[in-house]
From TrEMBL:
Record organism: Desulfuromonas acetoxidans (strain DSM 684 / 11070)
Primary localization class, coarse: cytoplasm
Protein name: Glucose-6-phosphate isomerase
Encoding gene per record: pgi
Catalytic reactions of this protein: alpha-D-glucose 6-phosphate = beta-D-fructose 6-phosphate
GO cellular component, one term: cytosol
EC number: 5.3.1.9
InterPro entries: G6P_Isomerase (IPR001672), Phosphoglucose_isomerase_CS (IPR018189), SIS_dom_sf (IPR046348), SIS_PGI_1 (IPR035476), SIS_PGI_2 (IPR035482)
Glycoprotein as UniProt keyword: no
Matching PROSITE patterns: P_GLUCOSE_ISOMERASE_1, P_GLUCOSE_ISOMERASE_2, P_GLUCOSE_ISOMERASE_3
Length: 525
Protein backbone atom coordinates (compact mmCIF):
# COMPACT_ATOMS: atom_id res chain seq x y z
CA UNK A 1 0.00 0.00 0.00
CA UNK A 2 1.32 3.43 -0.85
CA UNK A 3 2.00 5.91 1.87
CA UNK A 4 0.40 8.80 -0.05
CA UNK A 5 -3.06 7.86 1.19
CA UNK A 6 -2.10 8.09 4.88
CA UNK A 7 -4.21 10.15 7.18
CA UNK A 8 -2.32 12.66 9.29
CA UNK A 9 -3.16 10.84 12.52
CA UNK A 10 -1.74 7.58 11.27
CA UNK A 11 1.71 9.08 10.62
CA UNK A 12 4.51 8.17 12.99
CA UNK A 13 5.99 11.63 12.60
CA UNK A 14 2.69 13.17 13.67
CA UNK A 15 2.70 11.07 16.85
CA UNK A 16 6.26 12.24 17.53
CA UNK A 17 5.29 15.85 16.86
CA UNK A 18 2.38 15.58 19.28
CA UNK A 19 4.63 14.09 21.95
CA UNK A 20 7.13 16.95 21.76
CA UNK A 21 7.13 19.69 24.36
CA UNK A 22 5.61 22.85 22.81
CA UNK A 23 7.72 26.01 22.99
CA UNK A 24 7.32 27.22 26.57
CA UNK A 25 7.75 30.92 26.02
CA UNK A 26 7.65 32.67 22.65
CA UNK A 27 8.99 35.85 24.27
CA UNK A 28 12.30 34.21 25.15
CA UNK A 29 12.47 32.29 21.87
CA UNK A 30 12.30 35.56 19.93
CA UNK A 31 15.95 36.60 20.24
CA UNK A 32 17.60 39.19 17.94
CA UNK A 33 19.64 36.40 16.40
CA UNK A 34 16.51 34.41 15.64
CA UNK A 35 14.85 37.43 14.01
CA UNK A 36 17.88 37.75 11.72
CA UNK A 37 18.25 34.07 10.84
CA UNK A 38 14.97 32.18 11.15
CA UNK A 39 14.00 32.79 7.56
CA UNK A 40 13.88 31.07 4.19
CA UNK A 41 14.75 32.85 0.94
CA UNK A 42 11.89 33.12 -1.56
CA UNK A 43 14.20 34.67 -4.21
CA UNK A 44 13.95 38.17 -5.68
CA UNK A 45 14.96 39.54 -2.27
CA UNK A 46 11.83 38.11 -0.70
CA UNK A 47 11.87 36.19 2.59
CA UNK A 48 9.63 33.98 4.67
CA UNK A 49 10.58 34.82 8.25
CA UNK A 50 9.30 32.50 10.98
CA UNK A 51 11.22 33.94 13.93
CA UNK A 52 7.99 34.68 15.82
CA UNK A 53 6.50 31.23 15.25
CA UNK A 54 6.48 28.88 18.24
CA UNK A 55 8.64 26.24 16.56
CA UNK A 56 12.06 25.20 17.86
CA UNK A 57 14.62 22.81 16.38
CA UNK A 58 13.03 19.53 17.59
CA UNK A 59 9.63 20.65 16.27
CA UNK A 60 11.16 21.65 12.92
CA UNK A 61 12.86 18.28 12.66
CA UNK A 62 9.59 16.48 13.36
CA UNK A 63 7.89 18.64 10.72
CA UNK A 64 10.56 17.63 8.20
CA UNK A 65 9.88 13.98 9.06
CA UNK A 66 6.17 14.54 8.63
CA UNK A 67 6.72 16.06 5.17
CA UNK A 68 8.94 13.11 4.26
CA UNK A 69 6.53 10.50 5.61
CA UNK A 70 3.58 12.05 3.76
CA UNK A 71 5.79 12.33 0.65
CA UNK A 72 4.37 15.74 -0.06
CA UNK A 73 7.03 16.82 -2.54
CA UNK A 74 6.69 13.60 -4.46
CA UNK A 75 2.92 14.13 -4.53
CA UNK A 76 3.59 17.60 -5.92
CA UNK A 77 5.81 16.03 -8.59
CA UNK A 78 3.03 13.60 -9.50
CA UNK A 79 0.65 16.54 -9.79
CA UNK A 80 3.08 18.35 -12.10
CA UNK A 81 3.42 15.21 -14.23
CA UNK A 82 -0.34 15.13 -14.81
CA UNK A 83 -1.53 12.56 -12.24
CA UNK A 84 -5.27 12.70 -11.44
CA UNK A 85 -4.91 14.55 -8.11
CA UNK A 86 -8.53 15.67 -8.03
CA UNK A 87 -9.87 12.16 -7.54
CA UNK A 88 -13.52 12.95 -6.87
CA UNK A 89 -13.80 14.75 -10.23
CA UNK A 90 -11.24 12.52 -11.96
CA UNK A 91 -9.22 15.53 -13.06
CA UNK A 92 -5.60 16.52 -13.31
CA UNK A 93 -4.58 19.68 -11.44
CA UNK A 94 -2.53 21.85 -13.76
CA UNK A 95 -2.48 25.46 -12.62
CA UNK A 96 1.32 25.31 -12.28
CA UNK A 97 1.50 24.56 -16.00
CA UNK A 98 -0.14 27.89 -16.82
CA UNK A 99 3.10 29.61 -15.78
CA UNK A 100 5.77 27.11 -16.80
CA UNK A 101 6.73 23.51 -17.33
CA UNK A 102 8.23 21.71 -14.35
CA UNK A 103 7.24 18.11 -14.91
CA UNK A 104 6.54 15.80 -17.81
CA UNK A 105 4.82 17.04 -20.95
CA UNK A 106 1.13 16.74 -20.08
CA UNK A 107 -0.85 15.72 -23.14
CA UNK A 108 -4.65 15.55 -23.30
CA UNK A 109 -6.67 14.74 -26.41
CA UNK A 110 -3.46 14.87 -28.44
CA UNK A 111 -2.59 18.42 -27.29
CA UNK A 112 0.30 19.42 -25.07
CA UNK A 113 -1.46 21.40 -22.36
CA UNK A 114 1.54 23.63 -21.74
CA UNK A 115 1.26 24.65 -25.41
CA UNK A 116 -2.47 25.17 -25.00
CA UNK A 117 -2.08 27.51 -22.00
CA UNK A 118 0.73 29.41 -23.72
CA UNK A 119 -1.29 29.76 -26.94
CA UNK A 120 -4.15 31.30 -24.99
CA UNK A 121 -1.78 33.78 -23.35
CA UNK A 122 -0.34 34.63 -26.77
CA UNK A 123 -3.83 35.12 -28.22
CA UNK A 124 -4.73 37.40 -25.31
CA UNK A 125 -1.50 39.38 -25.80
CA UNK A 126 -2.22 39.86 -29.51
CA UNK A 127 -5.78 40.94 -28.79
CA UNK A 128 -4.59 43.40 -26.14
CA UNK A 129 -2.23 45.05 -28.63
CA UNK A 130 -5.19 45.57 -30.97
CA UNK A 131 -7.23 47.10 -28.16
CA UNK A 132 -4.39 49.30 -26.95
CA UNK A 133 -3.53 50.62 -30.42
CA UNK A 134 -7.17 51.24 -31.31
CA UNK A 135 -7.55 48.59 -34.02
CA UNK A 136 -10.33 47.01 -31.98
CA UNK A 137 -12.87 49.62 -30.93
CA UNK A 138 -16.32 49.79 -29.40
CA UNK A 139 -19.65 49.89 -31.25
CA UNK A 140 -19.59 53.67 -31.65
CA UNK A 141 -16.06 53.65 -33.06
CA UNK A 142 -14.46 55.00 -29.89
CA UNK A 143 -11.27 53.53 -28.42
CA UNK A 144 -11.62 51.41 -25.30
CA UNK A 145 -10.40 53.22 -22.20
CA UNK A 146 -11.93 50.94 -19.57
CA UNK A 147 -12.23 47.22 -18.98
CA UNK A 148 -14.79 45.55 -16.72
CA UNK A 149 -14.66 41.91 -15.63
CA UNK A 150 -17.91 40.07 -14.95
CA UNK A 151 -17.35 36.90 -12.87
CA UNK A 152 -17.58 35.53 -9.34
CA UNK A 153 -15.53 33.32 -6.99
CA UNK A 154 -12.31 32.29 -8.69
CA UNK A 155 -13.37 34.26 -11.75
CA UNK A 156 -13.34 37.44 -9.67
CA UNK A 157 -11.39 37.28 -6.41
CA UNK A 158 -7.90 36.41 -7.66
CA UNK A 159 -7.96 38.61 -10.77
CA UNK A 160 -9.44 41.52 -8.80
CA UNK A 161 -6.90 41.17 -5.97
CA UNK A 162 -4.05 40.99 -8.51
CA UNK A 163 -5.33 44.01 -10.45
CA UNK A 164 -5.67 46.10 -7.31
CA UNK A 165 -2.22 45.01 -6.17
CA UNK A 166 -0.59 46.42 -9.28
CA UNK A 167 -2.84 49.28 -10.41
CA UNK A 168 -1.44 52.08 -8.27
CA UNK A 169 2.17 51.22 -9.02
CA UNK A 170 1.50 50.94 -12.74
CA UNK A 171 -0.51 54.16 -12.78
CA UNK A 172 2.27 56.08 -11.02
CA UNK A 173 4.76 54.79 -13.59
CA UNK A 174 2.31 55.91 -16.32
CA UNK A 175 2.01 52.27 -17.41
CA UNK A 176 -1.69 51.77 -16.73
CA UNK A 177 -3.26 51.10 -20.12
CA UNK A 178 -6.88 50.52 -19.15
CA UNK A 179 -8.48 51.05 -15.78
CA UNK A 180 -10.44 47.97 -14.63
CA UNK A 181 -13.72 47.53 -12.75
CA UNK A 182 -15.38 44.33 -11.57
CA UNK A 183 -18.95 43.12 -11.26
CA UNK A 184 -19.43 39.94 -9.23
CA UNK A 185 -22.40 39.90 -6.87
CA UNK A 186 -25.90 39.09 -8.12
CA UNK A 187 -27.10 41.98 -5.95
CA UNK A 188 -28.44 44.42 -8.57
CA UNK A 189 -26.74 47.25 -6.71
CA UNK A 190 -23.33 45.83 -7.65
CA UNK A 191 -23.86 45.91 -11.43
CA UNK A 192 -26.01 49.03 -11.06
CA UNK A 193 -23.31 51.02 -9.35
CA UNK A 194 -20.46 49.89 -11.59
CA UNK A 195 -22.46 50.45 -14.78
CA UNK A 196 -23.55 53.91 -13.65
CA UNK A 197 -19.90 54.95 -13.35
CA UNK A 198 -18.61 53.42 -16.60
CA UNK A 199 -18.45 55.20 -19.97
CA UNK A 200 -20.13 52.30 -21.78
CA UNK A 201 -19.15 53.36 -25.31
CA UNK A 202 -15.50 53.11 -24.22
CA UNK A 203 -15.76 49.98 -22.05
CA UNK A 204 -14.71 46.46 -22.96
CA UNK A 205 -16.34 43.76 -20.81
CA UNK A 206 -14.73 40.40 -20.06
CA UNK A 207 -17.24 37.71 -19.18
CA UNK A 208 -15.38 35.11 -17.12
CA UNK A 209 -16.89 31.80 -16.12
CA UNK A 210 -15.06 28.51 -16.20
CA UNK A 211 -18.29 26.51 -16.13
CA UNK A 212 -20.30 29.00 -18.18
CA UNK A 213 -23.32 28.21 -16.01
CA UNK A 214 -22.91 30.41 -12.94
CA UNK A 215 -26.20 32.14 -12.13
CA UNK A 216 -24.71 35.38 -10.84
CA UNK A 217 -22.39 35.84 -13.81
CA UNK A 218 -25.00 35.05 -16.46
CA UNK A 219 -27.47 37.40 -14.79
CA UNK A 220 -24.92 40.19 -14.74
CA UNK A 221 -24.01 39.48 -18.36
CA UNK A 222 -27.65 40.09 -19.30
CA UNK A 223 -27.72 43.33 -17.31
CA UNK A 224 -24.59 44.55 -19.07
CA UNK A 225 -25.90 43.61 -22.52
CA UNK A 226 -29.14 45.46 -21.76
CA UNK A 227 -27.24 48.53 -20.58
CA UNK A 228 -25.15 48.54 -23.78
CA UNK A 229 -28.22 48.15 -25.97
CA UNK A 230 -29.94 50.99 -24.12
CA UNK A 231 -27.12 53.24 -25.40
CA UNK A 232 -27.47 51.78 -28.90
CA UNK A 233 -24.18 49.91 -28.59
CA UNK A 234 -23.83 46.41 -30.03
CA UNK A 235 -22.93 44.13 -27.07
CA UNK A 236 -21.05 41.77 -29.40
CA UNK A 237 -18.54 44.58 -30.02
CA UNK A 238 -18.02 45.23 -26.32
CA UNK A 239 -17.56 41.80 -24.82
CA UNK A 240 -15.02 38.98 -24.80
CA UNK A 241 -15.42 35.66 -22.99
CA UNK A 242 -13.02 33.58 -20.92
CA UNK A 243 -14.29 30.08 -20.26
CA UNK A 244 -13.37 26.41 -20.43
CA UNK A 245 -13.54 24.84 -23.87
CA UNK A 246 -16.20 22.39 -22.71
CA UNK A 247 -18.58 24.97 -21.20
CA UNK A 248 -21.86 26.05 -22.86
CA UNK A 249 -20.38 29.56 -23.08
CA UNK A 250 -17.68 28.30 -25.43
CA UNK A 251 -20.40 27.68 -28.03
CA UNK A 252 -22.27 30.93 -27.63
CA UNK A 253 -22.06 33.80 -30.11
CA UNK A 254 -22.15 37.45 -29.25
CA UNK A 255 -18.50 38.01 -28.29
CA UNK A 256 -15.66 39.83 -29.99
CA UNK A 257 -13.59 36.75 -29.27
CA UNK A 258 -13.17 34.02 -26.62
CA UNK A 259 -10.16 32.82 -24.65
CA UNK A 260 -9.97 29.44 -23.01
CA UNK A 261 -8.82 27.56 -19.93
CA UNK A 262 -9.82 24.00 -19.13
CA UNK A 263 -11.17 21.74 -16.41
CA UNK A 264 -7.69 21.08 -15.07
CA UNK A 265 -7.34 24.58 -13.63
CA UNK A 266 -9.56 25.13 -10.59
CA UNK A 267 -11.33 28.48 -10.35
CA UNK A 268 -9.46 29.57 -7.22
CA UNK A 269 -6.15 28.58 -8.86
CA UNK A 270 -6.92 30.32 -12.15
CA UNK A 271 -5.32 33.77 -11.68
CA UNK A 272 -2.33 32.73 -13.80
CA UNK A 273 -4.52 31.28 -16.58
CA UNK A 274 -6.56 33.21 -19.15
CA UNK A 275 -8.96 34.05 -16.27
CA UNK A 276 -6.48 36.45 -14.69
CA UNK A 277 -4.32 37.15 -17.72
CA UNK A 278 -7.09 38.76 -19.81
CA UNK A 279 -7.87 41.59 -17.41
CA UNK A 280 -4.27 42.00 -16.26
CA UNK A 281 -2.91 42.24 -19.81
CA UNK A 282 -5.65 44.64 -20.88
CA UNK A 283 -4.86 46.79 -17.86
CA UNK A 284 -1.06 46.59 -17.77
CA UNK A 285 0.20 44.98 -20.99
CA UNK A 286 2.06 41.77 -21.68
CA UNK A 287 5.42 42.57 -20.04
CA UNK A 288 3.89 43.05 -16.60
CA UNK A 289 1.93 39.81 -16.87
CA UNK A 290 5.02 37.89 -17.98
CA UNK A 291 6.86 39.17 -14.88
CA UNK A 292 3.93 38.17 -12.69
CA UNK A 293 3.90 34.66 -14.19
CA UNK A 294 7.69 34.36 -13.84
CA UNK A 295 7.41 35.15 -10.13
CA UNK A 296 4.77 32.44 -9.69
CA UNK A 297 6.88 29.94 -11.61
CA UNK A 298 9.88 30.74 -9.43
CA UNK A 299 7.95 29.77 -6.30
CA UNK A 300 6.75 26.60 -8.01
CA UNK A 301 10.43 25.70 -8.55
CA UNK A 302 11.30 26.38 -4.89
CA UNK A 303 8.39 24.20 -3.80
CA UNK A 304 10.13 21.17 -5.33
CA UNK A 305 12.85 21.25 -2.68
CA UNK A 306 12.31 18.46 -0.13
CA UNK A 307 14.20 20.35 2.61
CA UNK A 308 11.82 22.42 4.65
CA UNK A 309 14.46 25.03 5.41
CA UNK A 310 14.75 25.73 1.69
CA UNK A 311 11.09 25.42 0.73
CA UNK A 312 9.10 28.38 2.11
CA UNK A 313 5.66 27.15 1.03
CA UNK A 314 6.24 23.74 2.59
CA UNK A 315 7.55 25.23 5.83
CA UNK A 316 4.60 27.61 6.02
CA UNK A 317 2.24 24.68 5.39
CA UNK A 318 3.86 22.48 8.04
CA UNK A 319 3.85 25.19 10.70
CA UNK A 320 0.17 25.78 9.90
CA UNK A 321 -0.60 22.07 10.40
CA UNK A 322 1.33 22.07 13.69
CA UNK A 323 -0.67 25.08 14.90
CA UNK A 324 -3.96 23.57 13.76
CA UNK A 325 -3.54 19.94 14.77
CA UNK A 326 -1.16 20.01 17.74
CA UNK A 327 -1.77 23.43 19.28
CA UNK A 328 -5.46 23.48 18.27
CA UNK A 329 -5.65 27.00 16.86
CA UNK A 330 -8.89 27.53 14.89
CA UNK A 331 -8.10 30.37 12.51
CA UNK A 332 -5.36 32.32 10.83
CA UNK A 333 -5.26 36.01 9.98
CA UNK A 334 -3.61 37.40 6.84
CA UNK A 335 -2.33 40.90 7.51
CA UNK A 336 -0.68 42.63 4.56
CA UNK A 337 0.85 45.98 5.49
CA UNK A 338 0.18 47.22 1.97
CA UNK A 339 -2.97 48.91 0.75
CA UNK A 340 -2.29 47.40 -2.67
CA UNK A 341 -3.04 43.99 -1.13
CA UNK A 342 -6.39 45.11 0.26
CA UNK A 343 -8.28 42.28 -1.51
CA UNK A 344 -5.56 39.66 -1.08
CA UNK A 345 -7.09 38.30 2.15
CA UNK A 346 -10.43 37.88 0.32
CA UNK A 347 -8.68 35.89 -2.39
CA UNK A 348 -6.92 33.74 0.22
CA UNK A 349 -10.22 33.06 1.93
CA UNK A 350 -11.46 31.30 -1.18
CA UNK A 351 -8.13 29.72 -1.99
CA UNK A 352 -7.65 28.24 1.47
CA UNK A 353 -11.17 27.65 2.77
CA UNK A 354 -12.67 26.29 -0.45
CA UNK A 355 -9.66 24.02 -0.91
CA UNK A 356 -9.14 22.70 2.60
CA UNK A 357 -12.53 23.11 4.26
CA UNK A 358 -13.11 19.34 4.00
CA UNK A 359 -14.10 16.59 6.46
CA UNK A 360 -13.48 13.48 4.37
CA UNK A 361 -10.16 12.16 3.13
CA UNK A 362 -9.23 11.24 -0.41
CA UNK A 363 -10.69 7.78 0.15
CA UNK A 364 -14.05 9.25 1.12
CA UNK A 365 -13.74 8.48 4.85
CA UNK A 366 -14.38 11.00 7.62
CA UNK A 367 -11.17 12.39 9.10
CA UNK A 368 -10.78 12.60 12.89
CA UNK A 369 -8.63 15.70 12.95
CA UNK A 370 -9.03 19.36 12.12
CA UNK A 371 -8.40 20.47 8.54
CA UNK A 372 -8.37 24.01 7.05
CA UNK A 373 -8.55 26.94 9.47
CA UNK A 374 -10.84 29.94 9.19
CA UNK A 375 -8.94 32.56 7.18
CA UNK A 376 -9.61 36.26 7.43
CA UNK A 377 -7.67 39.48 7.22
CA UNK A 378 -7.39 43.11 6.40
CA UNK A 379 -4.68 45.47 5.23
CA UNK A 380 -2.64 46.99 8.04
CA UNK A 381 -2.91 49.39 9.73
CA UNK A 382 -6.69 49.35 9.18
CA UNK A 383 -7.03 45.99 10.95
CA UNK A 384 -5.28 47.37 14.03
CA UNK A 385 -8.16 49.76 14.63
CA UNK A 386 -10.67 46.98 14.19
CA UNK A 387 -10.23 43.31 15.14
CA UNK A 388 -6.68 43.33 16.59
CA UNK A 389 -8.23 43.75 20.04
CA UNK A 390 -9.38 40.13 19.89
CA UNK A 391 -6.08 39.01 18.42
CA UNK A 392 -4.18 40.62 21.31
CA UNK A 393 -6.47 39.94 24.26
CA UNK A 394 -9.20 37.52 23.12
CA UNK A 395 -9.56 33.98 24.45
CA UNK A 396 -8.53 32.30 21.18
CA UNK A 397 -4.95 32.29 20.01
CA UNK A 398 -4.90 33.09 16.30
CA UNK A 399 -1.70 32.72 14.29
CA UNK A 400 -0.89 35.71 12.12
CA UNK A 401 0.58 36.00 8.66
CA UNK A 402 2.16 39.42 8.16
CA UNK A 403 3.26 40.70 4.74
CA UNK A 404 5.33 43.86 4.34
CA UNK A 405 7.50 45.86 1.93
CA UNK A 406 10.41 48.19 2.44
CA UNK A 407 9.17 50.70 -0.13
CA UNK A 408 5.78 51.86 -1.36
CA UNK A 409 4.71 51.50 -4.99
CA UNK A 410 3.71 55.01 -5.86
CA UNK A 411 6.78 57.14 -5.12
CA UNK A 412 4.69 59.68 -3.22
CA UNK A 413 6.05 59.05 0.28
CA UNK A 414 7.13 62.09 2.28
CA UNK A 415 8.18 63.04 5.78
CA UNK A 416 5.39 64.19 8.05
CA UNK A 417 6.20 64.84 11.71
CA UNK A 418 9.60 63.21 11.53
CA UNK A 419 8.82 60.06 9.55
CA UNK A 420 7.40 59.07 6.20
CA UNK A 421 4.10 57.24 5.85
CA UNK A 422 5.93 54.09 4.78
CA UNK A 423 8.15 54.31 7.87
CA UNK A 424 5.04 54.67 10.02
CA UNK A 425 3.43 51.70 8.28
CA UNK A 426 6.43 49.45 8.81
CA UNK A 427 6.97 50.67 12.38
CA UNK A 428 3.43 49.49 13.08
CA UNK A 429 4.10 46.15 11.45
CA UNK A 430 7.26 45.47 13.46
CA UNK A 431 5.66 46.70 16.67
CA UNK A 432 2.72 44.34 16.21
CA UNK A 433 4.90 41.27 15.72
CA UNK A 434 6.72 41.93 18.98
CA UNK A 435 3.60 42.96 20.89
CA UNK A 436 1.85 39.76 19.85
CA UNK A 437 4.80 37.54 20.71
CA UNK A 438 6.00 39.15 23.95
CA UNK A 439 2.93 40.83 25.41
CA UNK A 440 3.15 43.10 28.45
CA UNK A 441 2.73 42.81 32.19
CA UNK A 442 0.44 45.29 33.92
CA UNK A 443 -1.09 45.68 37.36
CA UNK A 444 -4.55 46.24 35.87
CA UNK A 445 -5.92 42.99 34.45
CA UNK A 446 -7.54 44.53 31.37
CA UNK A 447 -4.21 46.05 30.36
CA UNK A 448 -2.29 42.80 30.50
CA UNK A 449 -1.11 41.34 27.21
CA UNK A 450 -0.22 37.68 27.70
CA UNK A 451 1.64 37.55 24.38
CA UNK A 452 2.52 34.07 23.04
CA UNK A 453 0.68 34.92 19.81
CA UNK A 454 2.72 33.52 16.93
CA UNK A 455 3.23 35.21 13.59
CA UNK A 456 5.25 34.87 10.42
CA UNK A 457 6.38 37.61 8.08
CA UNK A 458 6.82 37.60 4.31
CA UNK A 459 8.75 40.66 3.24
CA UNK A 460 10.37 42.09 0.11
CA UNK A 461 11.76 45.41 -1.12
CA UNK A 462 8.65 46.37 -3.07
CA UNK A 463 5.43 44.84 -4.37
CA UNK A 464 6.43 44.43 -8.03
CA UNK A 465 4.57 42.23 -10.56
CA UNK A 466 7.16 39.49 -10.01
CA UNK A 467 6.87 39.65 -6.22
CA UNK A 468 3.09 39.53 -6.53
CA UNK A 469 3.30 36.36 -8.64
CA UNK A 470 5.59 34.87 -6.00
CA UNK A 471 3.20 35.73 -3.19
CA UNK A 472 0.24 34.23 -5.04
CA UNK A 473 2.05 30.97 -5.83
CA UNK A 474 3.47 30.74 -2.31
CA UNK A 475 -0.03 30.55 -0.86
CA UNK A 476 -1.33 28.26 -3.62
CA UNK A 477 1.51 25.86 -2.86
CA UNK A 478 1.05 26.16 0.89
CA UNK A 479 -2.62 25.20 0.51
CA UNK A 480 -1.70 22.29 -1.76
CA UNK A 481 0.91 20.95 0.69
CA UNK A 482 -1.53 21.22 3.60
CA UNK A 483 -4.09 19.22 1.60
CA UNK A 484 -1.47 16.49 1.07
CA UNK A 485 -0.59 16.49 4.78
CA UNK A 486 -4.25 16.17 5.75
CA UNK A 487 -4.89 13.60 3.00
CA UNK A 488 -7.84 15.58 1.66
CA UNK A 489 -8.75 16.57 -1.88
CA UNK A 490 -8.00 20.31 -2.03
CA UNK A 491 -9.28 20.55 -5.58
CA UNK A 492 -13.02 19.95 -5.47
CA UNK A 493 -15.71 22.17 -3.85
CA UNK A 494 -18.91 20.21 -3.30
CA UNK A 495 -19.72 22.51 -0.37
CA UNK A 496 -21.19 25.10 -2.72
CA UNK A 497 -23.73 22.75 -4.29
CA UNK A 498 -26.46 22.35 -1.67
CA UNK A 499 -27.12 26.06 -1.39
CA UNK A 500 -27.18 26.39 -5.19
CA UNK A 501 -29.75 23.58 -5.44
CA UNK A 502 -32.05 25.07 -2.78
CA UNK A 503 -31.77 28.48 -4.46
CA UNK A 504 -33.03 26.92 -7.68
CA UNK A 505 -36.00 25.45 -5.77
CA UNK A 506 -36.87 28.88 -4.42
CA UNK A 507 -36.61 30.58 -7.81
CA UNK A 508 -38.53 27.77 -9.52
CA UNK A 509 -41.34 27.79 -6.92
CA UNK A 510 -40.64 24.13 -6.04
CA UNK A 511 -39.53 24.39 -2.40
CA UNK A 512 -39.62 21.02 -0.61
CA UNK A 513 -38.34 22.01 2.82
CA UNK A 514 -40.91 23.57 5.18
CA UNK A 515 -38.41 25.85 6.93
CA UNK A 516 -37.21 27.17 3.58
CA UNK A 517 -40.82 27.71 2.62
CA UNK A 518 -41.29 29.78 5.79
CA UNK A 519 -38.26 31.90 4.90
CA UNK A 520 -39.78 32.44 1.44
CA UNK A 521 -42.87 33.89 3.11
CA UNK A 522 -40.71 36.28 5.16
CA UNK A 523 -39.31 37.70 1.94
CA UNK A 524 -42.67 37.99 0.19
CA UNK A 525 -43.76 41.14 1.91
O1 LIG B 1 -15.96 30.41 -13.06
P1 LIG B 1 -17.29 29.86 -12.71
O2 LIG B 1 -17.55 28.53 -13.34
O3 LIG B 1 -18.38 30.85 -13.05
O4 LIG B 1 -17.33 29.60 -11.18
C1 LIG B 1 -17.25 30.59 -10.22
C2 LIG B 1 -17.15 30.01 -8.82
O5 LIG B 1 -18.36 29.37 -8.49
C3 LIG B 1 -18.42 28.11 -7.87
O6 LIG B 1 -19.56 28.07 -7.09
C4 LIG B 1 -17.22 27.64 -7.10
O7 LIG B 1 -17.46 27.48 -5.74
C5 LIG B 1 -16.00 28.48 -7.27
O8 LIG B 1 -14.88 27.65 -7.09
C6 LIG B 1 -15.94 29.12 -8.63
O9 LIG B 1 -14.77 29.87 -8.73
Amino acid sequence: MTKTTNNLDSCEAFAQLTALQPVGNLATLLTPQRVATAQVAMDDGMWFNYAAKAVDEPILQALQQLADEQQVVSQYRQLLDGAVMNGSEQRMVLHHLTRGQLGADVVHGGTSLRDFYQQQLDRIAAFCVQVHNGEVRGGSGERFTRVCQIGIGGSDLGPRAMYLALAHGQRSQKQLKLEASFISNVDPDDAGQVLAELPLSRTLFILVSKSGTTQETLTNESLVREALRSQELDPARHMVAVTSETSPLAQSKGFLTSFYMDDFVGGRFSSTSAVGAAVLMLAFGETVVKEFLAGAHQQDCLALNPNVDENPALLDALIGVYERNVLGYPATAVLPYSQALSRFPAHLQQLDMESNGKSVNRQGQAVRYATGPVVFGEAGTNGQHSFYQLLHQGTDRIPLQFIGFLREQGGSDRVIQGSTSQQKLNANLMAQIVAFAKGRRHKEANKVFVGQRPSSLIYAAQLTPRVLGSLLAHFENKVMFQGFLWNINSFDQEGVQLGKMLTQQVLGGRVEDDALDAYCRLFQS
